[in-house]
Amino acid sequence: EEYKTSAYIKGKLDEWDISYKDGYSNTGIVAWLKGKEGNSKRSIGLRADFDALPMTEKSTFNHRSNNPGMMHACGHDGHTSMLLGAVKYLSENLDFDGNVYFIFQPGEEGFGGGEKMIQDGLFNDFEIDEVYALHNWPELPLGQFGVSTGAMMAGADDFDIIVKGKGGHAAMPDLTVDPIIIASQIILSFQTIISRFINPMDKAVISVTKIHGGSAYNVIDDQVIISGTVRTFSSELQDSIEKKMKETALTISKMNN
Q1: Alpha-carbon distance 164 to 248, whole Å?
Q2: How many angstroms separate the CA atoms of 106 and 137, rounded?
Q3: Cα–Cα distance measured from residue 146 to residue 135, given in angstroms and rounded to the nearest whole number
Q4: Ranges assigned E (strand) in 90-215
Q5: What predicted TM-score, i.e. pTM, was given to this entire model?
């Protein structure tokens, strides 16, 4: 939804006379520069995202969001600012050999913007040998970078679980199948997946972030919806946790039926 951000980026690129192509994943942009040292065909991509999170900002500083329900809580506006800074600096210092592509990516927060840019022809249009990105980390001292071998940022999967029960009056719970009780047991059991079924040397997180159910003080409703996110560093662990979550949810539901 960051149409103004996309327009702002293109405005800066136009101002600096930088070549670019837009339309990737709707608002995505790729700009490029060619160095003046040599004729190498080597190329790298520098990538930054520029989307926000669906939450209202409560901060009071001057650069807080002015749009209710939209906040750069992960600092992606900072990422794009840094990439624009890299564009401007390198455009004024072309003493390098090869090509640099600047990838401005929308839809990082759960919308697969990077994949959509690829589907829209990013790597068909541009031959890029390697792509580099970073993520701001406020806990690091100013001027320092954190680097590591292997995976740096976990892959994220979202999940929704609908627990269907049998509603009724809260004064007669024995005549119901209470989905809130079942959902509570599922949520607590999910935590043992990480602590008791996953190798302690592996890294994974299950976070239940939403639970919706009920409409009145004295009524046991028919269903509850549990939602959240799972973070993993390998496809094998991703599949293993998904399987265990399904088994856990189904087993607990059968026990309470």
Answers
A1: 15
A2: 20
A3: 10
A4: 99-105, 130-132, 155-164, 168-169, 204-213
A5: 0.72
Instruction: Report residue 5 as tokens.
Output: 């951000």
Res 73: pLDDT: 82
Confidence at residue 248, expressed as pLDDT on a 0 to 100 scale: 96
For tokens 């190798």, the residue is 199
Distance (Å, whole) CA 12 – CA 50:
15
Do residues 42 and 99 touch, judged by C-beta distance below 8 A? yes
- Within the chain, where are the H helices? 3-15, 76-92, 113-119, 122-125, 179-192, 235-255
241 is written with which tokens?
A: 């946790």
Per-residue pLDDT of 69-121, as tens digits, reads 888 888 888 899 999 999 999 999 999 999 999 999 998 877 888 999 999 99
Interior angle at CA 190, CA 183 and CA 232, nearest 5? 135
Q: By the 8 A CB rule, do 231 and 198 touch?
A: no
